[in-house]
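User: Batch of two.

Assistant: Item 1 of 2:
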Amino acid sequence: MKILVYAACLVCAAWLTDARCETFKVGFYNYPPMMIESGRTGIYQELLDELGQLSGHRFQIEYLPYARLAKRYDLGQIDLEPGVFPGWVKQERVPGVFSVPFGKVVDVLVFAPGKHFKVSTPRDLSGRTLGLVRG
Protein backbone atom coordinates (compact mmCIF):
# COMPACT_ATOMS: atom_id res chain seq x y z
CA MET A 1 0.00 0.00 0.00
CA LYS A 2 2.88 2.37 0.80
CA ILE A 3 4.33 1.80 -2.67
CA LEU A 4 0.98 2.63 -4.31
CA VAL A 5 0.66 5.87 -2.33
CA TYR A 6 4.28 6.77 -3.12
CA ALA A 7 3.72 6.11 -6.84
CA ALA A 8 0.54 8.20 -6.82
CA CYS A 9 2.40 11.06 -5.15
CA LEU A 10 5.17 10.89 -7.76
CA VAL A 11 2.63 11.00 -10.59
CA CYS A 12 0.88 13.98 -9.01
CA ALA A 13 4.19 15.78 -8.45
CA ALA A 14 5.22 15.19 -12.07
CA TRP A 15 1.83 16.44 -13.29
CA LEU A 16 2.01 19.57 -11.13
CA THR A 17 5.55 20.29 -12.29
CA ASP A 18 4.47 20.05 -15.94
CA ALA A 19 1.44 22.25 -15.28
CA ARG A 20 3.68 24.92 -13.74
CA CYS A 21 5.90 25.12 -16.79
CA GLU A 22 3.25 25.54 -19.46
CA THR A 23 3.84 28.03 -22.28
CA PHE A 24 0.93 30.04 -23.64
CA LYS A 25 0.85 31.92 -26.95
CA VAL A 26 -0.64 35.36 -26.33
CA GLY A 27 -1.96 37.69 -29.01
CA PHE A 28 -1.53 41.43 -28.51
CA TYR A 29 -2.34 44.36 -30.77
CA ASN A 30 -1.07 47.90 -30.28
CA TYR A 31 -3.57 49.48 -27.85
CA PRO A 32 -1.83 51.84 -25.40
CA PRO A 33 -1.70 51.83 -22.41
CA MET A 34 -2.86 48.20 -22.26
CA MET A 35 -0.54 46.81 -24.98
CA ILE A 36 2.29 48.91 -26.38
CA GLU A 37 4.09 47.31 -29.30
CA SER A 38 6.97 49.80 -29.22
CA GLY A 39 9.09 48.51 -26.36
CA ARG A 40 6.73 45.56 -25.84
CA THR A 41 5.30 47.05 -22.65
CA GLY A 42 1.93 47.96 -21.22
CA ILE A 43 -0.45 46.97 -18.47
CA TYR A 44 -1.22 43.51 -19.90
CA GLN A 45 2.48 42.79 -20.36
CA GLU A 46 3.13 43.70 -16.72
CA LEU A 47 0.22 41.52 -15.58
CA LEU A 48 1.48 38.52 -17.54
CA ASP A 49 5.05 39.06 -16.31
CA GLU A 50 3.80 38.99 -12.70
CA LEU A 51 1.53 36.02 -13.37
CA GLY A 52 4.50 34.17 -14.86
CA GLN A 53 6.55 34.88 -11.73
CA LEU A 54 3.77 33.57 -9.48
CA SER A 55 2.73 30.55 -11.53
CA GLY A 56 5.83 29.47 -13.43
CA HIS A 57 3.95 29.75 -16.73
CA ARG A 58 5.61 31.34 -19.74
CA PHE A 59 3.82 33.72 -22.08
CA GLN A 60 4.96 34.14 -25.69
CA ILE A 61 3.67 37.52 -26.79
CA GLU A 62 3.03 38.18 -30.46
CA TYR A 63 1.77 41.51 -31.82
CA LEU A 64 -0.65 41.24 -34.73
CA PRO A 65 -3.30 43.42 -36.39
CA TYR A 66 -6.54 42.73 -34.52
CA ALA A 67 -8.32 40.93 -37.38
CA ARG A 68 -5.37 38.55 -37.85
CA LEU A 69 -5.14 37.98 -34.08
CA ALA A 70 -8.84 37.06 -33.91
CA LYS A 71 -8.46 34.66 -36.85
CA ARG A 72 -5.39 32.98 -35.34
CA TYR A 73 -7.24 32.62 -31.99
CA ASP A 74 -10.18 31.03 -33.79
CA LEU A 75 -7.79 28.58 -35.50
CA GLY A 76 -6.24 27.63 -32.14
CA GLN A 77 -2.88 29.24 -32.94
CA ILE A 78 -3.24 31.77 -30.09
CA ASP A 79 -4.08 30.60 -26.55
CA LEU A 80 -4.85 33.92 -24.85
CA GLU A 81 -6.29 37.19 -26.09
CA PRO A 82 -6.42 39.68 -23.21
CA GLY A 83 -8.82 42.59 -23.09
CA VAL A 84 -11.73 41.10 -24.99
CA PHE A 85 -15.32 41.82 -24.04
CA PRO A 86 -17.43 38.61 -24.10
CA GLY A 87 -20.15 40.34 -26.14
CA TRP A 88 -17.71 40.93 -29.00
CA VAL A 89 -17.05 37.23 -29.55
CA LYS A 90 -20.22 35.42 -28.48
CA GLN A 91 -21.05 34.57 -32.12
CA GLU A 92 -17.54 33.29 -32.89
CA ARG A 93 -16.82 29.60 -33.42
CA VAL A 94 -14.55 29.72 -30.33
CA PRO A 95 -16.02 32.36 -27.99
CA GLY A 96 -13.39 31.74 -25.28
CA VAL A 97 -13.43 31.50 -21.51
CA PHE A 98 -13.37 34.73 -19.52
CA SER A 99 -12.03 35.70 -16.13
CA VAL A 100 -13.75 38.07 -13.78
CA PRO A 101 -13.32 41.58 -15.23
CA PHE A 102 -10.63 43.61 -13.46
CA GLY A 103 -11.19 46.91 -15.21
CA LYS A 104 -13.25 48.70 -17.80
CA VAL A 105 -12.69 51.15 -20.62
CA VAL A 106 -14.73 54.32 -20.62
CA ASP A 107 -15.07 56.14 -23.93
CA VAL A 108 -15.81 59.84 -23.94
CA LEU A 109 -17.61 61.55 -26.80
CA VAL A 110 -16.70 65.16 -27.49
CA PHE A 111 -18.98 67.28 -29.64
CA ALA A 112 -18.31 70.50 -31.49
CA PRO A 113 -20.34 73.44 -30.15
CA GLY A 114 -23.97 73.09 -31.20
CA LYS A 115 -23.44 69.63 -32.74
CA HIS A 116 -24.31 67.41 -29.78
CA PHE A 117 -26.99 64.72 -29.82
CA LYS A 118 -28.24 62.18 -27.29
CA VAL A 119 -26.34 58.87 -27.15
CA SER A 120 -27.74 56.05 -25.00
CA THR A 121 -26.32 53.03 -26.80
CA PRO A 122 -23.63 52.48 -29.45
CA ARG A 123 -26.45 51.96 -31.97
CA ASP A 124 -27.25 55.69 -31.59
CA LEU A 125 -23.94 56.39 -33.35
CA SER A 126 -24.83 54.32 -36.42
CA GLY A 127 -24.62 56.34 -39.63
CA ARG A 128 -22.99 59.30 -37.92
CA THR A 129 -19.59 60.76 -38.73
CA LEU A 130 -17.31 60.52 -35.71
CA GLY A 131 -13.80 61.51 -34.85
CA LEU A 132 -11.83 59.96 -32.07
CA VAL A 133 -8.56 60.35 -30.26
CA ARG A 134 -6.55 57.20 -29.69
CA GLY A 135 -3.83 56.75 -27.09
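Item 2 of 2:
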Amino acid sequence: MKTRAERESPPEHVVLGKLTSPYGVKGWLRVYSYTSPMEGILEYDEWVLRHGGGESRYRLSQGRRHGKGLVARLEGVDGRDRAETLAGAEILLPTAELPELPGDDEFYWYQLEGLSVVTTEGVALGRVEYLFETGANDVLVVRGREGESVDARERLLPFLPDEVVREVDLEAGRMIVDWDPAF
Protein backbone atom coordinates (compact mmCIF):
# COMPACT_ATOMS: atom_id res chain seq x y z
CA MET A 1 0.00 0.00 0.00
CA LYS A 2 1.37 3.42 -0.92
CA THR A 3 1.94 5.96 1.82
CA ARG A 4 0.26 9.33 1.80
CA ALA A 5 3.63 10.80 0.87
CA GLU A 6 3.72 8.56 -2.24
CA ARG A 7 0.07 9.11 -3.21
CA GLU A 8 -0.11 12.86 -2.86
CA SER A 9 1.96 15.86 -3.74
CA PRO A 10 2.73 18.27 -0.91
CA PRO A 11 -0.29 20.23 0.27
CA GLU A 12 -0.89 23.52 -1.52
CA HIS A 13 -1.15 25.35 1.81
CA VAL A 14 -0.11 24.81 5.42
CA VAL A 15 -2.12 26.10 8.37
CA LEU A 16 -0.18 28.75 10.31
CA GLY A 17 -2.87 29.66 12.81
CA LYS A 18 -6.42 30.79 13.36
CA LEU A 19 -8.37 34.00 13.82
CA THR A 20 -10.28 33.50 17.06
CA SER A 21 -12.37 36.61 17.75
CA PRO A 22 -12.59 40.36 17.17
CA TYR A 23 -10.44 42.64 19.33
CA GLY A 24 -11.85 46.12 19.83
CA VAL A 25 -14.03 48.03 17.39
CA LYS A 26 -11.55 48.97 14.64
CA GLY A 27 -11.33 45.59 12.87
CA TRP A 28 -8.51 43.97 14.83
CA LEU A 29 -8.67 40.21 15.43
CA ARG A 30 -7.14 37.89 18.02
CA VAL A 31 -4.75 35.41 16.43
CA TYR A 32 -3.87 31.92 17.64
CA SER A 33 -0.52 31.09 16.06
CA TYR A 34 0.83 27.60 15.39
CA THR A 35 4.26 28.98 14.47
CA SER A 36 7.27 28.87 16.72
CA PRO A 37 7.92 31.50 17.89
CA MET A 38 4.29 32.59 17.86
CA GLU A 39 5.19 35.99 16.38
CA GLY A 40 6.53 34.21 13.28
CA ILE A 41 3.05 34.31 11.75
CA LEU A 42 3.32 38.11 11.59
CA GLU A 43 6.32 37.86 9.24
CA TYR A 44 4.06 36.88 6.33
CA ASP A 45 2.54 39.88 4.55
CA GLU A 46 -0.28 38.00 2.85
CA TRP A 47 -2.58 35.48 4.47
CA VAL A 48 -5.01 33.11 2.82
CA LEU A 49 -8.05 32.71 5.07
CA ARG A 50 -10.16 29.55 4.89
CA HIS A 51 -13.60 30.11 6.32
CA GLY A 52 -17.09 28.87 5.55
CA GLY A 53 -15.91 26.55 2.79
CA GLY A 54 -14.09 29.25 0.83
CA GLU A 55 -10.71 30.93 0.72
CA SER A 56 -9.82 34.59 0.42
CA ARG A 57 -6.59 36.60 0.50
CA TYR A 58 -5.83 39.45 2.86
CA ARG A 59 -2.77 41.60 3.39
CA LEU A 60 -1.60 41.97 6.96
CA SER A 61 -1.50 45.69 7.72
CA GLN A 62 -0.49 45.45 11.38
CA GLY A 63 0.19 42.80 13.97
CA ARG A 64 1.60 42.72 17.46
CA ARG A 65 1.84 40.78 20.67
CA HIS A 66 -1.00 41.48 23.10
CA GLY A 67 -0.80 39.90 26.54
CA LYS A 68 -0.10 36.19 26.05
CA GLY A 69 -1.34 36.21 22.47
CA LEU A 70 -1.35 38.16 19.23
CA VAL A 71 -3.68 40.62 17.54
CA ALA A 72 -3.68 41.59 13.88
CA ARG A 73 -5.36 43.98 11.51
CA LEU A 74 -6.02 43.02 7.90
CA GLU A 75 -6.45 45.44 5.00
CA GLY A 76 -10.12 45.98 4.22
CA VAL A 77 -11.30 44.87 7.66
CA ASP A 78 -12.25 48.22 9.16
CA GLY A 79 -14.79 47.45 11.84
CA ARG A 80 -15.86 44.95 14.45
CA ASP A 81 -18.75 43.63 12.34
CA ARG A 82 -16.42 42.73 9.47
CA ALA A 83 -13.91 41.20 11.92
CA GLU A 84 -16.66 39.02 13.40
CA THR A 85 -17.32 37.48 9.98
CA LEU A 86 -13.68 36.27 9.91
CA ALA A 87 -13.62 34.81 13.43
CA GLY A 88 -12.77 31.12 13.26
CA ALA A 89 -10.94 31.38 9.92
CA GLU A 90 -7.78 29.33 9.45
CA ILE A 91 -4.71 31.28 8.38
CA LEU A 92 -2.98 29.51 5.49
CA LEU A 93 0.31 30.02 3.73
CA PRO A 94 1.19 28.56 0.34
CA THR A 95 3.66 25.72 0.97
CA ALA A 96 5.97 27.17 -1.69
CA GLU A 97 6.41 30.31 0.46
CA LEU A 98 7.72 28.45 3.50
CA PRO A 99 11.34 29.30 4.24
CA GLU A 100 13.89 26.65 3.35
CA LEU A 101 14.95 24.71 6.42
CA PRO A 102 18.62 25.06 7.32
CA GLY A 103 19.46 21.38 7.73
CA ASP A 104 18.68 18.01 6.18
CA ASP A 105 17.56 16.77 9.60
CA GLU A 106 14.86 19.44 10.04
CA PHE A 107 11.28 19.04 8.88
CA TYR A 108 7.99 20.84 8.80
CA TRP A 109 5.28 18.94 10.64
CA TYR A 110 3.18 18.56 7.49
CA GLN A 111 6.08 16.62 5.94
CA LEU A 112 6.00 14.05 8.75
CA GLU A 113 2.23 13.53 8.81
CA GLY A 114 1.29 10.35 6.97
CA LEU A 115 4.73 8.73 7.12
CA SER A 116 4.78 5.04 8.02
CA VAL A 117 6.63 4.35 11.26
CA VAL A 118 8.79 1.23 11.54
CA THR A 119 11.05 0.16 14.40
CA THR A 120 14.76 -0.51 13.90
CA GLU A 121 13.78 -4.24 14.06
CA GLY A 122 11.32 -3.83 11.17
CA VAL A 123 8.06 -3.83 13.18
CA ALA A 124 5.43 -1.57 11.59
CA LEU A 125 3.81 0.65 14.25
CA GLY A 126 1.46 2.65 12.03
CA ARG A 127 1.42 6.13 10.52
CA VAL A 128 2.06 9.59 11.90
CA GLU A 129 -1.40 11.12 12.30
CA TYR A 130 -0.26 14.47 13.71
CA LEU A 131 2.23 16.08 16.07
CA PHE A 132 1.94 18.30 19.10
CA GLU A 133 4.30 20.35 21.20
CA THR A 134 4.91 19.67 24.88
CA GLY A 135 7.58 22.23 25.67
CA ALA A 136 10.28 19.62 26.23
CA ASN A 137 9.97 18.13 22.73
CA ASP A 138 7.49 17.55 19.93
CA VAL A 139 5.43 14.36 20.10
CA LEU A 140 4.41 12.13 17.19
CA VAL A 141 0.95 10.58 17.39
CA VAL A 142 1.34 7.23 15.59
CA ARG A 143 -1.83 5.28 14.87
CA GLY A 144 -1.71 1.61 13.97
CA ARG A 145 -4.04 0.11 11.40
CA GLU A 146 -5.26 -3.47 11.15
CA GLY A 147 -3.41 -5.36 8.45
CA GLU A 148 -0.85 -2.60 8.05
CA SER A 149 0.87 -2.58 11.43
CA VAL A 150 1.57 -4.80 14.42
CA ASP A 151 -1.68 -3.64 16.07
CA ALA A 152 -4.27 -0.86 15.93
CA ARG A 153 -2.97 1.04 18.95
CA GLU A 154 -2.20 4.71 19.14
CA ARG A 155 1.29 5.50 20.39
CA LEU A 156 2.87 8.76 21.48
CA LEU A 157 6.53 8.88 20.48
CA PRO A 158 8.84 11.75 21.38
CA PHE A 159 10.34 13.36 18.30
CA LEU A 160 13.94 13.06 19.44
CA PRO A 161 16.30 12.73 16.47
CA ASP A 162 19.20 10.32 17.03
CA GLU A 163 17.58 8.98 20.22
CA VAL A 164 14.12 7.77 19.16
CA VAL A 165 13.85 8.91 15.55
CA ARG A 166 16.73 7.27 13.73
CA GLU A 167 15.84 8.08 10.13
CA VAL A 168 13.28 10.08 8.20
CA ASP A 169 13.01 9.23 4.52
CA LEU A 170 10.46 11.56 2.95
CA GLU A 171 10.84 10.05 -0.52
CA ALA A 172 10.11 6.54 0.77
CA GLY A 173 7.37 7.86 3.09
CA ARG A 174 8.98 6.15 6.09
CA MET A 175 10.36 6.93 9.52
CA ILE A 176 12.56 4.46 11.41
CA VAL A 177 12.38 4.64 15.20
CA ASP A 178 14.13 2.99 18.12
CA TRP A 179 10.97 2.09 20.04
CA ASP A 180 9.65 -0.96 21.85
CA PRO A 181 6.32 -1.95 20.22
CA ALA A 182 5.00 -2.95 23.67
CA PHE A 183 4.88 0.75 24.69
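The radius of gyration is 19 Å.
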